[in-house]
Amino acid sequence: MEAKTSSLILLHNATIVTMDPQSRVFRNGGIVIDEDKIKAIGQSLEILHEFSAVADQIIDLQGQVLLPGFINTHVHTSQQLGRGIADDVDLMTWLHHRIWPYESNMTEEDSYVSTLLCGIELIHSGVTCFAEAGGQHVSGMARAVDLLGLRACLVQSTMDSGQGLPESWAIRTTDDCIQSQKELYEKHHNTADGRIRIWLGLRQIMNSTDSLLLKTRDTAKQLKTGIHMHVAEIPYENQLVMDTREVGHGTVTYLEKIELLQKNLLAAHSVWVNDTEIGFLSRAGVKVSHCPAAAMRMLGFAPIKEMLDAGICVSLGTDGAPSNNRMSIVDEMYLASLINKGREVYANGTTDPTALPAETILKMATINGAESVLWDNEIGSLVVGKKVGLSAQIIFPWADMIIVNPFSWSMVPIHDCISSLVYCMRSENIISVMCNGRWIMKNQKILNVDEGEVISMAKQASSELLKRAGIRIPNRMTLL
């Protein structure tokens, strides 16, 4: 890890998009970082007057944009080495013949390299925190997250039943699944200067016995941590739940019945839900991770506008490389607004260009993301302090933020800053990223790892992994 080079950093002459409760945007703002916390924020002249004499470092951002780090609430970091192995196939082929053979043949070193490669792409797209969606070697993930300097909620991919499971997975019992996660919690929770948290994972209801669902629910409550689960991804899933669990609709209805819908549940995708189930999710305080690219690819159009109207906290995720290929939350912001505008034609027979406006999308990528990973008291917005709890204790947020250079062909001219961040910005516009008060990318250079070395390691590891897994990618055209 890069050592802290100064204790008080002052950044000024910036457009600061705070994402605070008042949605304040400072057109010429300044911010002071004290070690790893935000100490002050306001107009540049006021910040300079108060802090320039004591600042160890003063940075003139020359009109660039400063905003909170983005939060990717659904990403399979250990699938990065499998980018491109499952394009243009149906979901069951994707799962049973590509992804499960791939994941079941991974080593801890593979997971480490895969997470490094994924993390580099996440940082370049402005992500400072992510929620792992489930993989096999959490210790490898944790090692990579620590080195990269990111913040993460890590989970083990957990299954104890279902057809088509690799042999090494099919022998797992419910108790094995719970015990291994407890051990991971003891080993890694709150490590890496507090940047790593361990959650419990449920891959999907089709691979979970009732015993696993209930014990996961109770263990998460005991450990005071979150649960990350793929929920209502495809119609087949809902039909299987209706056939085997004897409920009226599907996964969400059943999870409500067994009281697994709670505030600590992060439900990924949640595409195939009806109005009644949206009500269940809202009343329980469940958070939903919307992954627009993956949804368009093989899942369908989730009723995101209806969820937001019902008061559900909806955030954004990329999913994994084999189901999206691009780990850019910037791309997901653009897609989320467009496909949900377009879905209005399918849902209501007419267009609605006002659906999911730019400010809503920015909230999904920042403060909603923070709430989804149960970290909203400390990340997701640029504020000096937040009063929390009955005692009104003041929590000082971590310094997680990104710098965007809007003065390029992709963003100029800027008539509407907020609109431009969603509809014009590309990953290339993000030039510097700070997490926990430390720069992890400056001037588009990743600081804590050698990108070229990681790419070389990934090419070799992915080739060897596919050979072990016996995965052959068919030729699409005539290769000479």
TrEMBL record:
<protein>
    <recommendedName>
        <fullName>Amidohydrolase-related domain-containing protein</fullName>
    </recommendedName>
</protein>
<feature type="domain" description="Amidohydrolase-related">
    <location>
        <begin position="65"/>
        <end position="440"/>
    </location>
</feature>
<dbReference type="Pfam" id="PF01979">
    <property type="entry name" value="Amidohydro_1"/>
</dbReference>
<dbReference type="InterPro" id="IPR011059">
    <property type="entry name" value="Metal-dep_hydrolase_composite"/>
</dbReference>
<keyword id="KW-0378">Hydrolase</keyword>
<dbReference type="InterPro" id="IPR032466">
    <property type="entry name" value="Metal_Hydrolase"/>
</dbReference>
<dbReference type="InterPro" id="IPR050287">
    <property type="entry name" value="MTA/SAH_deaminase"/>
</dbReference>
<dbReference type="GO" id="GO:0016810">
    <property type="term" value="F:hydrolase activity, acting on carbon-nitrogen (but not peptide) bonds"/>
</dbReference>
<dbReference type="InterPro" id="IPR006680">
    <property type="entry name" value="Amidohydro-rel"/>
</dbReference>
